[in-house]
Amino acid sequence: MSLDDGSLPRATPPSFRRVARAFLVLGAGAVVAWGLVALVVFLSIERNWPRQAAPGTPAFGINFSCNYAEFLLLEEPGGLPLDDNRPDRTEWCATTFGRLLEETGARHVRLSVEWSQVEPVEGRFDFTLVDALLAEAERRGAAVLLTVGLKGQRHPEYYLPNWALAEGRPPWGAVIQLDSELGRRALAMVRATVAHVAGSAAIDSWGADNEPYVTSPRADRWALSRELVQAEVAAIHESDPLNRPVSIGHAQIFAHDTRWRGIVEDADAMAVSIYPFRNVPFPGRAIIFPIMEMGPLTPNFPAHAREAAAAGDAFWITEMQAEPWAEGDIRLFTPSKPSPNLDTGKFRRSLDYARRSGASRVYLWGSEWWLFTKERQGDARWMEMGRAAITAGATTAPGPTPATGGASR
Questions:
Q1: Which of 5, 119, 321, 344 has the fewest beta carbons under 10 Å from its own?
Q2: d(CA 147, CA 190)
Q3: Within-domain flag for 64
Q4: Would you state the pLDDT for residue 26?
Q5: How far apart are CA 94 and CA 90, in angstroms?
Q6: Which residues on adjacent β-strands are paired with residue 194?
């Protein structure tokens, strides 16, 4: 039939070669797409940001909180907390601290000054416990990173005496400012504390507050302003005749959090808290999410370490997860009913992350729990693993060293 009769031309069926070519292109595209997915997964898991650095040899140490040690070793689940004013508390805390230093072999330890304890009444100071802990550290040859400010280790984080809140509690979500009455009172405490303990040979560095820029769910999501923390750094330097280095700590989870850059500018040591295994709620089950294996979403800690070094700063991990992240009472976990949040494999992975971070010091978080599991549950695994890491990276604890930036920062 000719085209002139008004009919449409008959469609020519595609040839076999054309169909085969189309399937070949689609197949190749699928292979490339799946290859890209596999590459992303590989980079995220096997070459994630924290593991860019070759394994280093940081000096491992511990954190210590007497409050937490009492909670684990002396208090019973569901019972009332102990009275902090009991006559034997100072001796018990110092003795327990000494036992931990002996059992772990730690020569680096981080302690926190609790404001409500050292200044229970405005202008009247009681450094009995702080002095006892520093004396125990000096006797055992351990170097102390002493954190001082409004926040300290462990619950409730903000150790504020009642008199300091005479003008009322800061509102929910408040950022405590330098020019506030609470800020001024805190700075006066910082100066008095540093001036009192500056003669201790055990202290080799200071901490200007504990994670000051991280909002605290335990205290109405308060945080501290950068200006207040800068004033704390200056007050510490002014009150310390040896001009020992001052660190500022931060807990960074995602790469887009750039507040660490201000810490590099303001401090002599940038410090970070790392908890690699977080509990994520999910209907019907609990999920343990490895936040250090999120690929480009995970902070590039080796790069942070390099930038800190370029600025003349140290890079430390002041809290490295070495106990379970517990949503409830951690004492209810037992060897027969362990926490899924931390097993021996995850413990070793935490140590591996720390060694690959670029940090020169790593303070392990949970030594009090190691002692609890050993003494109350007969499970010495955690103490043995902690001691092995600490003694493997042991170095002679340095004496006081001049700050790189000094009071000019």
A1: 5
A2: 10
A3: yes
A4: 76
A5: 6
A6: none
Helices vs. strands in the chain: H and E counts, helices first:
12, 12
Paired tokens of 389: 């890491």
Within-domain flag for 298: yes
Element (H, E) at 346: helix 344-355
CA dist., res. 77 & res. 270, Å (int): 37
pLDDT score, position 49? 53
Question: Within 13 Å, how many C-alpha atoms sit on residue 268's CB side?
Answer: 24
As a whole number of angstroms, the distance between CA 92 and CA 79 comes to 20
pLDDT at 143: 98
Instruction: Give the Cα separation of 353 and 214 in Å (integer).
Output: 22
Place of tokens 């409500």: 116
C-alpha span between 9 and 196 (Å, rounded): 100
Rounded distance, CA 281 to CA 182, Å? 36
In this prediction, residue 8 carries a pLDDT of 52
- Angstrom distance (rounded) from CA 77 to CA 325: 17
Name the domain count of the chain. Answer: 1
Whether residue 190 contacts residue 126, with contact meaning beta carbons closer than 8 Å, is answered with no
Q: Phi, psi (5° rounding) for residue 390? A: -70, -45
Identity of residue 293: E
Coil, helix or strand at residue 288: strand
Q: Cα(70)–Cα(82) distance, rounded to whole angstroms?
A: 8
Is-contact 195 243, C-beta < 8 A?
no
Please report, for the domain that includes residue 198, its CATH number. 3.20.20.80
- Residue 2 inside a domain? The answer is no
184/284 Cα distance (integer angstroms): 48
Residue 65 counted as domain residue: yes
Q: Are 409 and 233 in contact (CB under 8 A)?
A: yes
- Which residue ranges in the chain fall short of pLDDT 50? 1-3, 47, 395-409
- Mapped onto helix, strand or coil, the DSSP state of residue 207 is strand
Bridge partners (DSSP) listed for residue 273: 319
Q: Evaluate the CA torsion angle 283, 285, 291, 293 in order and state its sign.
A: negative
Domain of 348? 52-408
Alpha helices in 140-197 (DSSP H): 181-197
Rounded Cα–Cα distance for residues 306 and 304 (Å): 5
Give the model's pLDDT for residue 134.
Answer: 98
Please calculate the CA angle 314-152-344 and round it to the nearest 5 degrees: 70
Q: How much is the pLDDT for 22? A: 67
